[in-house]
Amino acid sequence: MKKTIILTLAFGMMAVFANAQKAMDQFMVQVDGLGCPFCAYGLEKKFKEFKGIKDVKIDIETGDFSFSYPSEKSLTLTDVETQVEKAGYTPITAKVERANGEVEVAGGETTMTKDNAMVKETVKVAGNCGMCEARIVKAAKDVDGVGEASWNKDTKMLQVSFDSTATSLTAIEKAIATKGHDTENHQAHTDDYGNLPGCCQYERLEY
């Protein structure tokens, strides 16, 4: 009888421990500037300062960086973005799926009123990879008045919807060009292009 009680308690404690282990938040960040394995090592080393971090995965080509962290520590997206910057890189997008099922996105979603004069445009933007896609889309969405933006790395076409009373396609193209990407009507400065990671240095557009 005593052995049965001990075993029951032991299994009960193991179950509690297992549940505690499962209470992990899942973080997903797109990082700009990862050009080599050493860069990835530096980023991972910086995040090892967060005690309890697990399942670290870094894709150098796309800039995708993900990891798990104990939900009880309530790590914020702001903390994550700050840590990326401390490592010497730029966070492009950041998202966390909390253990309780909640999903948070850095900066939230842009909301537009129904009365806004929303228009949709398509324009060519040069780029190569998933990291380029994240950078181009972020540059477009950072422009006040932009609602949605998507870029296709195969066709090199950007689709963007925006409030025509707040911004213009020209302003959006200029914003993207400052990030190093040539657009149909605006060429990126040579220095901005040169600052792109090697995998993102596309074939320049001709004007």
Record the SSE blueprint.
Blueprint: H1 2-22, E1 24-32, H2 37-47, E2 54-59, E3 64-70, H3 77-86, E4 90-97, E5 103-105, E6 118-124, H4 130-141, E7 146-152, E8 157-163, H5 169-177, H6 190-194
Helix pairs in contact: 4-5
Quick summary:
This protein has about 210 residues and is α+β, with helices and mostly antiparallel strands. Helices cover about 35% and strands about 25% of the residues.
Structure overview:
33% of the residues lie in helices and 26% in strands. The chain is of the alpha+beta class and 207 residues long. The protein has two domains: 23-105, Alpha-Beta Plaits (2-Layer Sandwich); 118-200, Alpha-Beta Plaits (2-Layer Sandwich). A five-stranded antiparallel β-sheet has the order 2-3-1-4-5, with helices on both faces. Strands 6-8-7 form a three-stranded antiparallel β-sheet, with helices on one face. Strand 7 (146-152) and strand 8 (157-163) form a beta hairpin. Helix 4 crosses helix 5 (169-177).
CATH topology-level name of the largest domain? Alpha-Beta Plaits
Q: What's the main sheet like?
A: 5 strands, antiparallel
What is the H-and-E element order?
Answer: HEHEEHEEEHEEHH
State the oligomer.
single chain
Per CATH, the architecture of the largest domain is: 2-Layer Sandwich
How many individual domains?
2
Number of strands: 8
Write out the strand line-up for the largest beta sheet, numbering strands in chain order.
Answer: 2-3-1-4-5
| First-last Cα distance | 86 Å
How helix-rich are the residues, as a percent range?
25-40%
Structural class: alpha+beta
Rg, Cα atoms, Å: 22 Å
Determine and state the CATH class of the largest domain.
Alpha Beta
Shape: globular
- Assess the beta-strand content as a share of residues: 25-35%
